[in-house]
Amino acid sequence: MDLEKYFVKSDLIPAVVQEKGTGEVLMLAYMNRESLQKTFETGYTWFWSRSRQELWNKGATSGHLQKVIEMYSDCDNDTLLVIVEQTGAACHTGNHSCFYTKIYEREDI
Fold first, then answer.
1. What whole-number distance in Å separates Cα of residue 91 and Cα of residue 80?
2. Confidence at 46, pLDDT banded by 50, 70, 90
3. Taking the mean position of all CA atoms in its chain, how far away is CA 29?
C-alpha cells in the first residue's frame, strides 16, 4: 500500500480511535509513516508521540492494547478512523475514553 497519499499535507496525520463494540470515540492521536506501517504490520495501534518525539505502541506498558479491526481514511486522505477492540482503558487517566469531560450541553433539546 502506498502510504504517501496520507502524508501530502503533513508528516503527521490525526487518527480518531473508535471502539468496535460500542462506537464510542476513545481517543485522538497522531500517526507518521512509520507508526502507520507498524500498525498495518502488527495489527495493533502505533502512534507518534508529539510530546516525547517517539513512536509508541498503545498499551505496550499498561496492557491496554488496541487491536485494529478496520481503518478508514476520510475523503481528503488527511484523517484516519481506526476501529479497535480496546482492552482496558484507552485514556492514560484510567478512563475508558479520553473524552469524558463535558464542556457544553444544549438545554433546549
1. 19
2. very high
3. 5
CA separation, residue 19 to residues 41, 67, 85, 96 (Å):
20, 10, 6, 10
Distance of CA 90 to the CA centre of its chain: 10
Asked whether 96 and 87 are in contact (CB, 8 A), the reply is no
CA 67/CA 39 separation, integer angstroms: 9
Q: What residue type is assigned to position 60 of the chain?
A: A
C-alpha cell at 66: 488496541
Task: Tell me the sheet residues that pair with 14.
Answer: 30
Tens-place pLDDT, residues 16-38: 999 999 999 999 999 999 999 99
Cell reading at 54: 517517539
The predicted pLDDT at position 1 comes to 78
